Request: fold
Amino acid sequence: MTAADAPVVVVTGAGQGLGRAFALDLARRGWQVAVSDLDGDRAAKVAAEIAEAGGTARAFTCDVSDRLQAAGLAAAVADQLGQVVGLVNNAAVFSTLRMGPFEDIEADDWDRVLRVNVTGAFLMCRAFVPAMRSAGYGKVVNISSATVFTGRPGYLHYVTSKAALIGFTRALAAEVGPDGVTVNAITPGSTATEVERETITPDQRQAMAAATALRRVQVPGDLVGAVAFLLSRDSDFITGQTLNVDGGFAYH
Reply:
């Protein structure tokens, strides 16, 4: 199979953190990767990393919460890479959030988190799933969060948005399943990436690791296999499900 014949996957928020890890791993597995990020420079760097490693990728700048940009992304990816088989809805507002009581969350901040984390996934599916349905096959993986099982305080807007993605996953799976499209979610635990966060100290990170069954800090490499599985043919009869990948912190 040539590079041009390889399946195409779109990863949003792929310029850093988990999205970057998903993009790099999927490229290693033979996917053509559309690296999408709000920051085009970051997307370009990840696409360059993939190319240097011998993979195929294109960088795209996209605000997933913007309907026109989402539609434009779908057209551009189809033109440059071909029919999209997989979509990883990873883009989210999180690392820049500050912890605090819900009374202190400004309405604009609440709206921004829900607009990116939930409406963004909706708009991306609106943009990409119709072609999957027409082709009779496709895979959507939504990146939720294990915080929905613990109700982590201090992040009411974030936890609410990630819980919404689980309902979104179930309802969309039921709707598009007859057309051969599967929709699943992953709930990562607290994961140490290269993205700096002011809301967690090294001691807190270790304490959270100690509370897991596996007793170690979660890293992006712990999640890439789950994403790859849900995008693969091996998961063709799995849909509407939520896979918790947090080292045994919350049991679901």
Summary: The mean pLDDT is 92. Residues 3-245 form a domain with the Rossmann fold fold (CATH 3.40.50.720). The two ends are 39 Å apart (CA to CA). The longest strand covers residues 181-188.
